[in-house]
Amino acid sequence: MRRGLWIHSEPMNWLHSIEYPGATGTIEILILAAIFYFLVKFFRGTRGASILTGLTILFAFLMVITKFTNLLILNWLLQKLMVYLALALVVIFHPEIRRALARLGRQGNFMASKARRALADPVADAVLLMSSRKIGALIAIEREMETRGIQDTGTAMNSEVSSELLTSIFYPGTPLHDGGVIISEDRIAAAGCVFPLTQMEDLSRDLGTRHRAAIGLTEETDTLVIVVSEETGIISIAYNGRLRRGFDGPRLRRVLASFLSRKSGGLGQLANRRDRADSGQLNFIFGEDPNG
């Protein structure tokens, strides 16, 4: 009889041994949960997201295994390595961290959405004209992170955005046709700029210097870069370190309108379009999973 009471009372003693967090502990848990949520949301869709997920799963698995198998030395080493892991994450996510700090430093310096949307038509008209004539082009549009350092590599212009001016800049034989154009706010800030080339090694071999420069700039900034192939006339768009090719006129205009409008929920509205393939392309460009 005593043995039976001991068996039934053991789970109750185990439950009583649990320490509940209390009011202060609950607040701390909620704060940590909010921080974790925003970190996951911030890194979602970035190039280092899969690396972060893999490292987290690996370290959590090793910590649990070494703890419950009494491998104390290995567990101690893993705890010490957590400091170096934090430094590794800073290196892995330095483009994303720089973008976040740049957003904080801008102090909400946004343009009126109406003025930005007005840029979509002249840019699209110029790109489509150059595509039909197979004139190579490289056009970057700023979002929130300034590109002053990249602009300094070219020729300052501070000109109104027009399809005629953009086409003339990239016309073969002109002094500025080999570089890139940067549109800042509602004006052409500079032309003939040298964009940083991406260091990615798994790119297709048919991608030229313009495409690599477009990807490289979007790896370091939050710009959107439009590329027109000089050989094929194919229109490509780079964003967030990734490239999508084969845009026609309607798709190009929808991407530009969404990017330039800066409306919260604008991308969600695009996802509800009837053309699911097209909305998948747009979601891909803006760092979202078209299947999720």
Task: Give me the secondary-structure topology.
Elements: H1 2-16, H2 22-43, H3 49-68, H4 72-92, H5 94-106, H6 113-117, H7 120-133, E1 137-141, H8 148-151, E2 155-160, H9 163-170, E3 180-184, E4 187-193, H10 209-220, E5 224-228, E6 235-239, E7 242-245, H11 249-261, H12 266-271, H13 276-285
Parallel strand pairs: 1-3
Antiparallel strand pairs: 1-5, 2-4, 3-4, 5-6, 6-7
Helix pairs in contact: 3-4, 7-9, 7-11
Task: Tell me about this structure.
This protein has 292 residues and is α+β, with helices and mostly antiparallel strands. It folds into two domains: 2-105, no CATH class; 113-285, DNA integrity scanning protein, DisA, N-terminal domain (YojJ-like (1), CATH 3.40.1700.10. It contains 13 helices and seven strands. A seven-stranded mixed β-sheet has the order 2-4-3-1-5-6-7, with helices on both faces. Strand 5 (224-228) and strand 6 (235-239) form a beta hairpin. The longest helix is centred in the N-terminal third of the chain and has 22 residues, at 22-43. The radius of gyration is 26 Å and the shape is elongated. The chain starts with a helix and ends in a 7-residue tail after the last helix.
**For the residues shown, what is the average pLDDT?**
76
Strand content: 5-15%
Global shape:
elongated
Number of E strands: 7
The CATH topology of the largest domain is: YojJ-like (1
SSE class = alpha+beta
Q: Could you list the spans in which at least 5 consecutive residues all have pLDDT below 50?
A: 4-8, 107-112, 263-282, 286-292
As laid out across the biggest beta sheet, the strand order is: 2-4-3-1-5-6-7
CATH architecture of the largest domain: 3-Layer(aba) Sandwich
Summarize the main sheet: 7 strands, mixed
